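>> Question from a student workshop board

For tomorrow's exercise we were told to take the sequence and the ligand below, predict the bound structure, and bring the output to class. My setup keeps failing. Could a helper post the expected result so I can at least see what it should look like? The ligand is AR6.
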Amino acid sequence: MKRTFGEAAVEVTEGDITEQEVDAIVNAANSTLLGGGGVDGAIHRAGGPAILAECKTLGGCKTGDAKITTGGNLPANHVIHTAGPVYRDGKSGESEFLASCHTRSLAIVREYKLRTIAFPAISCGVYGYPIPDAARIAMRTVVKELEQHGGIDLVRFVLFDRPTYAEFARALESVRGTNGS
Ligand code: AR6
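>> Workshop helper replied:
Here is what the output should look like for this input. Compare the format with yours to find the bug.
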């Protein structure tokens, strides 16, 4: 499903983020940036060793921050690695950290003058974030950013399974933008 907010389209789709033909895909990494399982493992496998080689030079990434590397062999030219929060009790700053992952990733997209980006469901796997809450926060943050800043054509959320897709679709349907349609 798809909605537009100002000049930008926001889409949700079920699929594999490593196959996306966008300027940058976002990796749900950890603060070491040295690889892991889940979507992180899939991105490093599909993109090849150039991504890890560049990650090793970056000095890690604080929770809520984001850093960019090459996309290696991926269709996307760049990977934006962000460290999402581990979900504890919902009262440990998780929502601010999760929002910050999205804000920082979009700031990098603008800084590098990229126009299209794909996000996975950050923190919704081993980090245990309740998916409906994560979907609402991700969507609200992205729409707010798109309405405050121009320059981005497309934000696509790529969800790996049907239940996660359904939650992100519901969040996109109900998010309120000031100039959305
Ligand atoms: N494309 C799109 N989404 C995917 C893919 C894929 N190829 N593979 C998995 N997902 P997770 P986290 C979904 O656990 O919770 C890593 O080890 C998955 O179904 O990858 O942020 C890192 O190194 C889920 O919905 O990330 C960190 O240590 C979502 O991606 C830690 O896991 C996120 O699940 C980060 O945990």
